[in-house]
Design a protein that fits this description.
Layout: E1 5-10, E2 27-33, E3 37-45, E4 59-60, H1 62-79, E5 81-83, E6 93-102, E7 106-109, E8 115-116, E9 121-129, E10 137-139
Parallel strand pairs: 1-2
Antiparallel strand pairs: 2-3, 3-9, 4-8, 5-10, 6-7, 6-9
């Protein structure tokens, strides 16, 4: 299955740009390089992976949430490789949750009991301790 991915690389410390999430994008993400850490942050539209993850029904209930979160985690942990000369980049930190747009905060945790598949978004952050990274290669 071919998915459209939008990747925004952030190389300047502390700079995060605002990029629109197009209807065609299935994943929007960026890589942030800080003095002591590299983070991969992404928002995944669950609907784009409905068939691959064999989601049935029109909504994700409490019983199905963990399976979706596990699928998103596997998708990014196995699908993204970062390498840097002399530095091993191994993601050891992880945060993954359902999110929804919030006009005040940008995105907030989606705490609905049942989330329509067409509205389901998962936010994930993978982080790695890394010092003095000056360059890296990303394979997505």
């Amino acid at each position: 299955m071919k998915q459209r991915v939008f990747l925004f690389l952030v190389i300047l410390h502390g700079f995060v740009g605002s990029i629109a999430f197009s209807d065609e994008d299935s994943i929007r993400g960026f890589i942030a390089v800080e003095p002591f850490e590299i983070r991969l942050e992404a928002i995944v539209k669950v609907k784009a992976f409905r068939d691959l993850w064999r989601l049935s029904g029109d909504a994700i209930d409490a019983a199905g949430r963990q399976a979706v979160l596990d699928n998103v985690t596997t998708l990014l942990e196995t699908g993204v490789n970062l390498t840097s000369p002399g530095v091993e980049i191994d993601f050891t930190g992880r945060s993954v949750r359902f999110i929804q747009p919030d006009p005040q905060k940008g995105y907030a945790t989606d705490e609905r009991d049942s989330i329509p598949v067409g509205e389901a978004l998962v936010g994930i952050t993978l982080s790695a301790d890394a010092r003095n990274v000056r360059e890296f290669t990303a394979e997505w």
